[in-house]
Design goal:
globular; 652 residues; 22 strands; 3-stranded antiparallel β-sheet
């Protein structure tokens, strides 16, 4: 039997099995590649044995510490020490690929990601049609007619999801299928955005961003996409309230009207559809600021997040970033307690908006009920923490913010220890090494590019082994789109000291559990304030490490520097990502260095109606390496080759 025929049998068997499981009981599944499926199975950072609040400790150093009177206590999980052995790395990898922290409750039951034109069975049919082949863009046929934002969709229309499916995989990368009481649910794991299928090698690149995951469209096609209101710039609800709008009793005892669900849904959909593929809005700030999915080649690339806001705690802030993905971004209930203080929308009104059109009936709030949205939600929420659907615990600071979490939540699965899974993911990510680009560049070309790199002053910022000086640069100095840099500026009023549960405590956290303070002595306070845009700092962007550039176009935080293989026609986000043309790393890097090409890229971005509303411009970072700056075409070309082939360099 040929491979193609065998590959057809496997998905068909899976479909039959899924039908049986839907009818029979509970089950969950997410695909994790084997080493044979990987383009980059090798691991770096093997010398690290422990992390103690961001300090890397080798095994030799740990052995020396144990011999001291205080060293053994220092290496205790109860004091914030994290072991980074093979067992921890394996847990981190499994969590990265398989753990959704129950976000399928929000995505499926509340938001309805599988109830719109994209259905569970539509995705299943699309997977079967691959016949075991891999793809960087799972194309799903619409299961029903719909109007999404300003786009009409007919049943049978092909929808580009941007979901990656590895060769022979049963589900897309980063998608967790869960059957609960015969009902299919869908959740996401870290791998959805931070692992990618390479069609050239037909293998998975761990840590590479999914550069065309169409998250905005997938969310917009949900039946309750208005639940992503906090990720839009819709701050005036009055325009969506009609004479027939029902009222809810607010936290202050006053009556607040709920916006018309259809009108609000359409407005939110229009904004979500403007997110370029490969981007996600990871800040609940009532502004539209989608940013590129970053890579997960994280070793030495601290602080983390485009603004560098994650710099405190274990692994130089990486664990904080990992927590934020599930502790806030995939569950819009996480900000309920402070939403009024931050955005002026009453807690009950906001909850009513989230729930009035919930996909699952048990979550759907009826304003005619004799109870508030909070009372209804607490009665129907399946998780142990009353105001979030994801698996999470409330830190001692909850619901206030700290430099570890903007909402006081920390994700974790019952049965594990506090921070265990998040820290394991950080250790795993720090071990990832980007694979070399296909083809071979000459050593002469690389050396010439290195000289140009130094002559152009690139090393002033991009120094260090990971090609970053680990600094947050003021937004006005870097010159890129500034809105995202101010994402946390309102958090200043909520910040309290960073006190957490000890890593030795189990989930759910017991009464009287041990608390520890997160040390901030190694964190530069001025940098922290700039990263959080507080105390009048105006915000900034971190100097991005440059490892793995071949795998991560387009460039800049907004992903606006995008060029296809044909720079004459494939310009900007409209000419690449929105046209389903992959941004080319060589030409996109050229646009980062060449002012004439960049001008055309920015012009192309500005030509697309609405793109400026989501703050995707591709402007700034004007550090040119072109003829006007005194460099030859050959030097520019060599610099690009050098940048695409960078490796960890202790001497940089």
């Amino acid at each position: 039997m040929t491979w193609r025929r065998a590959a057809w049998v496997v998905p068909l068997t899976v479909l039959i099995s899924l039908i049986i499981l839907v009818l029979a009981g509970d089950w969950e599944y997410a695909w994790m590649p084997s080493d044979e499926d990987l383009l980059n199975p090798e691991r770096g950072n093997r010398e690290q044995a422990w992390d103690i609040w961001g300090q890397r400790i080798t095994q030799e150093e740990a052995d020396s510490l144990v011999e001291t009177s205080w060293g053994e206590a220092l290496l205790s999980p109860g004091n914030g020490a994290v072991r980074t052995d093979d067992e921890v790395l394996q847990l981190g990898r499994e969590t990265f690929y398989r753990e959704s922290f129950s976000n399928e409750h929000f995505l499926t039951d509340v938001m309805g990601v599988m109830d719109g034109p994209i259905s569970f069975w539509g995705v299943t049919r699309a997977l079967i049609s691959l016949r075991g082949r891999g793809t960087t863009n799972l194309q799903v046929k619409a299961s029903r007619d719909a109007v999404v934002g300003n786009r009409e969709i007919s049943r049978g229309d092909v929808i580009n999801t941007g979901l990656d499916v590895a060769r022979g995989a049963l589900v897309p990368l980063g998608i967790k299928v869960r059957i609960q009481r015969g009902r299919p649910m869908m959740g996401i794991t870290c791998a959805a955005c931070h692992a990618a299928y390479d069609p050239v090698s037909e293998k998975v690149v761990e840590g590479a961003p999914n550069i065309d995951l169409n998250a905005g469209l997938l969310l917009a096609m949900s039946t309750n996409s208005a639940s992503f209101l906090a990720n839009t710039d819709i701050d005036d609800l009055e325009q969506y309230i009609t004479d027939n709008s029902p009222s809810v009793t607010g936290s202050d005892g006053k009556l607040y009207r709920l916006p018309d669900p259809d009108r609000l849904e359409q407005a939110v959909d229009e904004l979500l559809m403007l997110w370029p593929p490969g981007t996600f809005d990871s800040s609940n700030e009532m502004r539209s600021t989608p940013t590129s999915n970053p890579d997960s080649f994280t070793r030495g690339d601290h602080p983390y997040g485009w603004t560098g806001f994650a710099m405190a705690g274990p692994f130089r802030g990486l664990s904080m970033l990992n927590n934020n993905v599930h502790g806030m971004n995939s569950d819009k209930f996480a900000d309920i307690e402070t939403f009024h203080q931050l955005h002026g929308i009453d807690r009950e009104q906001y909850l009513g908006i989230l729930l009035q059109r919930a996909a699952r009936e048990s979550y759907r709030y009826d304003p005619d009920l004799d109870e508030t949205p909070s009372e209804f939600f607490a009665r129907n929420n399946p998780t142990e923490v009353s105001s979030i659907t994801n698996d999470a615990i409330a830190l001692p600071s909850w619901p206030l913010a700290s430099f570890l979490t903007p909402n006081g939540y920390w994700i974790g699965t019952p049965g594990f220890r506090v921070w265990e899974e998040v820290n394991a993911m950080s250790a795993f990510q720090n071990s990832l090494v980007p694979p070399s680009p296909p083809g071979k560049s000459s050593s002469t070309e690389i050396l010439r590019g290195r000289r140009t790199f130094l002559e152009a002053g690139c090393r002033d910022c991009h120094s260090g082994p990971a090609f970053t000086n680990n600094q947050v640069i003021p937004a006005e100095q870097i010159g890129t789109e500034p809105v995202r840099a101010r994402a946390f500026e309102d958090m200043d009023q909520l910040l309290v000291p960073s006190t957490i549960w000890a890593f030795s405590e189990e989930i759910p956290v017991r009464t009287g559990a041990r608390m520890i303070d997160v040390p901030l002595e190694r964190v530069d306070r001025d940098q922290l304030e700039r990263a959080w845009a507080i105390d009048g700092s105006g915000g900034g962007y971190k100097v991005k490490g440059l490892l793995g550039l071949y795998w991560s176009p387009p460039y800049l935080h907004d992903g606006g520097v995008a060029v296809g293989q044909d720079p004459d026609t494939q310009l900007g986000v409209p000419g690449t990502l929105f046209d389903w043309t992959p941004p080319d790393p060589t030409e996109s890097l050229r646009a980062l260095l060449d002012r004439e090409l960049r001008e055309r890229v920015v012009e192309a971005n500005r030509s697309m109606s609405g793109l400026d509303r989501v703050n995707v411009l591709g402007t700034g970072h004007e550090y040119w390496v072109d003829e006007q700056a005194g460099f030859t075409v050959e030097e520019q070309e060599s610099l690009i080759e050098y940048l695409l082939n960078l490796e960890w360099d202790e001497d940089n």
